[in-house]
Write a structure and sequence with these properties.
This protein is α/β, with parallel strands linked by helices and 300 residues long. The protein contains nine helices and eleven strands. The chain has helices at 9-15, 62-68, 104-121, 148-156, 166-170, 195-207, 220-223, 248-272, 285-295, and strands spanning 31-50, 72-80, 83-89, 125-131, 135-138, 142-143, 181-187, 210-218, 229-234, 241-246, 275-280. The strands form three sheets. Strands 3, 4, 5, 6, 7, 8 and 11 form a seven-stranded mixed β-sheet that branches. It has a two-stranded antiparallel ribbon with strand order 1-2. A two-stranded antiparallel ribbon has the order 9-10. The chain is elongated and about 90 Å long.
């Protein structure tokens, strides 16, 4: 894929008016532009409080003292950085595409580019990694709008290959985010062990003090298959195959099982306080971001 396929000028102008919304405010090592619930050192006035010995005398308000005789200091809203980490599934199954829609990997990369752009535009810190059986090499932490081109070039160079195992990948603690923050996973969630594997992966990220967002990227054909007849079905990652006569009844059974799998995944996420997003490849990125992500309170 090409970097220009991921973000267009018109879309970035809309993203400039959006920001990520997180329930967790993060005290980073550097001051950012994200308002904290704590009081600190920004220039935006919040309130007064009574002066106590040891307070910074530069915050002593002499005008209030001159008018009222009260000894007070000014308090300001603290602006903290948020660390956002993006994991893009690059296993072989992500190469699949419907005839009129982009591949799952391209769609996931476009979504990741949009989230990454908002992060960098807000001057928060961004980490981005490819993931399969292991967490692959990523970029050094990015910060600021000038780093957008590095993000796009990295995502554009992604290729779907190999098998995926998210639980195994996140078992390596050194590959998890070091600081509390917000983590986004873009994956089709097709795993050998189903929701058990997904639950292990998500639990490990939460143990690393992450506010997790799971974005399941699937094609319309995976949700509602139109295949019929005698076919040889091949597992893209394992290479195994199976002969199958796809009747209407069998397809309906698949649709019920897929809906049940999604339901179990969504229920687990809801129980653990994880945001779950279904992102079909035939739904425009704009609609997912401005619609679904806004409705779930992930962007504002």
């Amino acid at each position: 894929m090409k970097p220009e396929e991921l973000l267009g000028a018109q879309w970035t102008s809309q993203l400039d008016r959006l920001t990520l919304s997180t329930a967790r405010r993060v005290r980073g090592t550097r001051q950012g532009r994200r308002r904290s619930r704590e009081l600190g050192a920004s220039l935006e006035f919040a309130d007064y409080r009574e002066y106590s010995p040891g307070d910074d005398v530069r915050r002593f308000d002499w005008s209030v003292y001159g008018r009222t005789g009260r000894k007070v200091v000014r308090q300001y809203l603290d602006e903290q950085e948020l660390q956002v980490t993006l994991y893009v599934d690059c296993s072989q199954s992500m190469d699949f595409a419907d005839e009129s829609s982009p591949s799952k990997l391209l769609h996931a990369s476009r979504l990741a580019a949009s989230i990454g752009y908002m992060t960098l535009a807000a001057y928060d810190r961004l980490g981005v990694y490819r993931i399969g059986e292991r967490v692959g090499e990523g970029l050094p932490l990015l910060r600021g709008r000038p780093a957008v081109h590095r993000l796009l070039n990295f995502l554009a160079a992604s290729e779907a290959k190999g098998r995926g195992d998210l639980a195994e990948a996140f078992a390596e603690r050194s590959r998890l985010p070091k600081l509390p923050g917000m983590t986004w996973i873009f994956s089709d969630c097709w795993t050998e062990r189903g929701e058990e594997e997904m639950e292990e992966a998500l639990a490990r990220l939460q143990a690393a003090r992450q506010e997790v967002v799971l974005v399941q990227v699937v094609t319309r054909g995976e949700i509602q298959p139109k295949l019929r007849g005698d076919l040889k079905l091949i597992d893209a990652e394992l290479g195994t195959s199976k002969e199958a006569a796809l009747t209407g009844r069998l397809v309906e059974a698949y649709e019920r099982e897929f809906a049940a799998y999604r339901g179990r995944l969504a229920e687990y996420c809801a129980r653990r306080g994880i945001a779950y997003i279904l992102a079909p490849t035939d739904v425009p990125i704009r609609e997912t971001v401005l619609g679904t992500l806004r409705e779930q309170g992930l962007v504002r």
